[in-house]
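To whoever is covering the structure queue this week,

Two jobs came back overnight. Logging them here so there's a record in the thread.

Job A:
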Amino acid sequence: MTVALDEKRYGDLLKSVRPHVIRDRSENEKALRQIEAFMSRGDALSAEEREVMDLLVALVEKFESDHYALSAAPPAEILRELLAARNLKQKDVVDLFPSKGVASEVLAGKRSISKSQAKRLAAFFHVSPALFI
């Protein structure tokens, strides 16, 4: 969907924010702060502000994909990270496994995650099942 922008307002916003190709960590942090400032305004953002924010997001994503490439992590490690990020414990996901013992073995990396378990975990964490396979 294309939204009509007020060209003067958009131009003035571009002059003040001055988005550009991000070349180092400090420029990336600055862009992230600008994005956060836009996001904090929520629904009050104008179409022009939303457009500049989207541009900044694209620039940050490009920089981070080039400089912070993630190596593939084992599914058990991904599961542990998701638990930690949400301040959850094994007991919070034990019902997604056939037993407490299976949950312990999966989290310890001693047992692989089945496709059905991956689907349940994906639904629980709102992520792709591919993360766990």
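Job B:
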Amino acid sequence: MALRDQPYIPLYIQDFLTDEKLIECTASATGVYIRLMCLMHKSDQYGKILLKQKDKQNTEQNTEQNTEQNTEQNIRQVKNFARKIAKNMPYKIDEIESALTELIEEKVLYIEGDSLCQKRMIKDNDISEKRSKSGKKGRVSSLSKDSGVNFAQAKPQAKPQAKPQAKPQANTEYENEYENEYENKRIEKGGMGEKERKDVYPDDFENFFVAYHKVTGLSKSDKKPAFNHWKKLTKAEKQKAADNIQPFYDSLKNKEYCKKCRTYLSDKSFNDEFKINPADDPSKPRFMC
């Protein structure tokens, strides 16, 4: 089933709450963003809002000014998107325009040509379509092998009326999140086996990555970008990053907004001053790289 045909959005709560880009946005911008994702869920191009020719205003006037700077064109596009979206939202146009400007500046959304895009939704839709195509090919191949008939070339016959069946229970949010996370890793690694995965990530990083998520309890969906930051650290920094996982987590006032592993490494949060030091507190585990 296409994602747009589902009655819900696959919103991953932990990713949403810890998105460092979205955290920088105001409450009003976040409210517009949630409703905008609902519109993108039902859009013809999943994860995108297309600006049609009839939605554009004042785009052909003052041609000399239009070609001076790309920023002016982006401002006009935001205004046009705000007018279009306002038809489906209970907000004023200037409120929507302000929110879109903020979301684009923080790179929560981006404009590509005449489309307003949300990266995660587009990626999820691509994975869904790949699964659908793969499943159809597998079913046709299996039926052809069992019956000796090439179903891909056979003429369609009248389909008998099927008896109504009970609607299968929808996957829970956590099942969907786990399934998507696993599929993303499988596609990124090209279906590599366990032996090949160990060759990609060395033992010191594997030990650190497992330790970080064991302490924080976060989703392990950012392994590849985390490893990219890990490679840039010195040996001393790597050891310090591993030693200060527990002190860093203990120092957080609100554990729900704990940084993802990649952000912990890119910001070098392990260099912060913590009240608890692993060397002074033997009860806290020390993870060796």
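Note for Job B: The chain has two domains: 3-121, 191-289.

Please reply-all if you pick these up so we don't duplicate work.
Q.
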